[in-house]
Amino acid sequence: FQNQLLSNDGHNPLMKKVFDIHLAFLKNGQSEAALKHVFASLRAFISKFPSAFFKGRVNMCAALCYEILKCCTSKVSSTRNEASALLYLLMRNNFEFTKRRTFLRTHLQIIIAVSQLIADVALSGGTRFQDSLLIINNFANSDRPMKATAFPSEVKDLTKRIRTVLMATAQMKEHEKDPEMLVDLQYSLAKSYASTPELRKTWLDSMAKIHVKNGDFSEAAMCYVHVAALVAEFLHRKKLFPSGCTAFRKITPNI
């Protein structure tokens, strides 16, 4: 069924069914022994159908990153090791897929998944997660064929960014009762992703929710105007919306 599975770069009903079955094993608790086979199966799956993960729509890459990251906080060390190895393989395959230029798609989806897991309060076991990040870094440093490429430093940059998000989140927990401080931290996170529209949008949305909760509606509106301007600018670059973010200048000079 390879041809059917790869039609439309893997975005077809058959591939969705096959992938969802693979993913279901990660979503529902399995025994340690069963998980070993699940991870082996997923490694083969990524190697066999790279275009489904790294080309076209992001759904599959995003869903896989989210579930693997959840496994990276597992209490079972073998599951953590397997999950870290799978995440590393995903990054490496993405890097090879772009002819060793970048693994931006996986990088982005991992950061988005970390942000979502934090929002879903599914990222417990902070130290276990840090251990998994360390394993991934060690893989990158000891991967001989990748030594001469930009890959190891890109992996290091990714794990550093994840740590920044985790630290900011820990601070947010401390300042839960202090809305101004909380929003300040969220703002600095949104700003650190100025070059990554999807993530900037994620954090601006989350900021707006806090403002609404506190009854600060003009501040919430400002967040949403920024999100709209971000989308407008993105469409402008794709030549789908001529005026871009300047269309919002009348509302606020902040844009």
Low-pLDDT stretches = none
Mean of residue pLDDT values: 89
Largest sheet: none
Q: Please estimate the helix content.
A: over 70%
SSE order, one letter for each helix or strand = HHHHHHHHHHHH
Q: End-to-end distance, in Å? A: 50 Å
Rg computed from alpha carbons, rounded to a whole number of angstroms: 20 Å
Strand content: under 5%
Query: Based on helices, strands and strand pairing, what is the structural class?
Result: mainly alpha
What is the tally of helical segments? 12
The 3D shape can be described as globular
The number of E-state strands comes to 0
In CATH, the architecture of the largest domain is Alpha Horseshoe
Return the CATH topology of the largest domain.
Answer: Serine Threonine Protein Phosphatase 5, Tetratricopeptide repeat
Task: Give the domain tally.
Answer: 2
Highest-level CATH class of the largest domain:
Mainly Alpha
GO molecular function: guanyl-nucleotide exchange factor activity
InterPro entries: DOCK, DOCK_C_lobe_A, DOCKER_dom, DOCKER_Lobe_A
Protein name: Dedicator of cytokinesis protein 11
Family: Belongs to the DOCK family.
